[in-house]
Amino acid sequence: MARKQKTGSTNANETRENLLKLAARTFGTQGYSATTMRAIAEQAGIEAASIYYHFSSKEELVDEVMEQGAGRIVQELNGHIEALGPDATAEQRFRAAVLGQMTGLVKHGDFALAHGRLLGQLPEAVRERQVKRRERHQKLWNGLLEGLRTEGRLRGDVDIHLARIFILGSINSIQSWFNPRKGALEKIADQLCDMFFAGVSPPAS
Amino acid sequence: MARKQKTGSTNANETRENLLKLAARTFGTQGYSATTMRAIAEQAGIEAASIYYHFSSKEELVDEVMEQGAGRIVQELNGHIEALGPDATAEQRFRAAVLGQMTGLVKHGDFALAHGRLLGQLPEAVRERQVKRRERHQKLWNGLLEGLRTEGRLRGDVDIHLARIFILGSINSIQSWFNPRKGALEKIADQLCDMFFAGVSPPAS
DNA sequence: GTCTATAATGGGATAGAC
DNA sequence: GTCTATCCCATTATAGAC
């Protein structure tokens, strides 16, 4: 059940979460520098100065947007993999990861978009942390691909590095074109995996 | 042979070209809003005000960076295709396009990077024109893929739209990782196409 | 062709009232 | 928790000297 806030007056956490959402959307569409504290405040119906009660700076604000963006995507991805149980094949895990990451990108659109687009525009301190996060994420995918290799689902001459770039580039591009009316995510993920596998798997016979 | 300038004093065109290059690099790495006229001027060793002798505004400057970025990539791509002669197969043309676009991205790094990263951050007027340019570019790729289909190099159930997204996402991601010391572009393009074709082509038998 | 000086605007952030 | 008022500085762009 929902726990009561300790603070009186209008709920701080709620405002904070709202600001984060609005910041994510604005950062993602306008970029870091072009997004002003005033613009975020206006959308929330408060003055820019009031943001500083919830966040100490613009930098802290964007940092948390990035954290949440990365966190939500990974969580979705992991959730899809874990739902398979421990006996899943490498291919099942890989396919779950593809659908999981796509789902994360679409479900947490604003945060995911900000996360994907802002890396190159961030203040140094924030950027460094996010670069490390991204490296961990790539390792996760490397692991999935190595699993495929172990189970004989990757041709010997396929470069894992390149395959990862190939599949991640495709998955992530979904942000710029996916429209739920044009087809279910599951179907798109399947098609993408089919294309991927028919390319990397050894000839059937 | 090189033609003499009509103007006296230090060559205006030269400075203009230099400013464009520096602008491309800075826009591409920092983003549109974060790039200041001062920063560009400083790199060129002049004052910010002097830029306005060569460009009427920041908007015009970024517009030309975008134009050149798009133009150089397409030119490289077309050059590779045309070098094949008129009797080339659809697959040869496709493979030439992949290598051509990759070459363009690497060869004109600063302009290509700016072109790829700035779309979402541009002033409306500039953005609209570039969105149209991108659509033309996508149609070019659709044409290449339809050629493949006509010549029986695409499985019937492969969605051309998705295949285009798949291959373009992969090609374009080269900007963020390619290192000439790690392997020739030709080899990477080949590997990418091999992965692509072994997926989309009908089973050999 | 580039400079200095400056206008006009808007940015992030803080102080202190309520 | 949010406000108003304000500081201080950076920004794009222009005017006019050289």
Task: Give an overview in words.
- Chains A, B: Residues 13-73 form the HTH tetR-type domain.
- 2 copies of one chain form a homodimer.
- By secondary structure, chain A is an all-alpha fold.
- Chain A has a domain at 59-200: Tetracycline Repressor, domain 2, CATH 1.10.357.
- In chain A, 70% of the residues lie in helices and 0% in strands.
- Chain A is elongated, with a radius of gyration of 20 Å.
- The mean pLDDT of chain A is 91.
- The interface between A and B is medium-sized, with 33 and 33 residues.
- Chain A binds a DNA duplex (18 and 18 nucleotides) through residues 7-12, 15, 36-38, 46-50, 52-54, 57-58.
Labels describing this entry:
homodimer, 205 residues, mainly alpha, Tetracycline Repressor, domain 2, elongated, DNA-binding
By CATH, the architecture of the domain at 59-200 in chain A is named Orthogonal Bundle
Low-pLDDT runs of 5+ residues of chain A are: none
CATH topology of the domain at 59-200 in chain A: Tetracycline Repressor, domain 2
CATH C-level class of the domain at 59-200 in chain A: Mainly Alpha
- Secondary-structure class of chain A: mainly alpha
Gap between N and C termini of chain A? 57 Å
Q: How much helical structure, as a percent, in the residues of chain A?
A: 55-70%
User: How many individual β-strands of chain A?
Assistant: 0
What is the rounded Rg of chain A? 20 Å
Outline of chain A? elongated
Topology:
The structure is a homodimer of 205-residue chains.
Chain A: H1 12-30, H2 37-44, H3 48-54, H4 58-82, H5 90-107, H6 109-118, H7 124-150, H8 160-172, H9 185-200
Chain A binds a DNA duplex (18 and 18 nucleotides) through helix 3.
Pfam families (chains A, B): TetR_C_24 (PF17932), TetR_N (PF00440)
GO molecular function, one term (chains A, B): transcription cis-regulatory region binding
Domain HTH tetR-type (chains A, B): 13-73
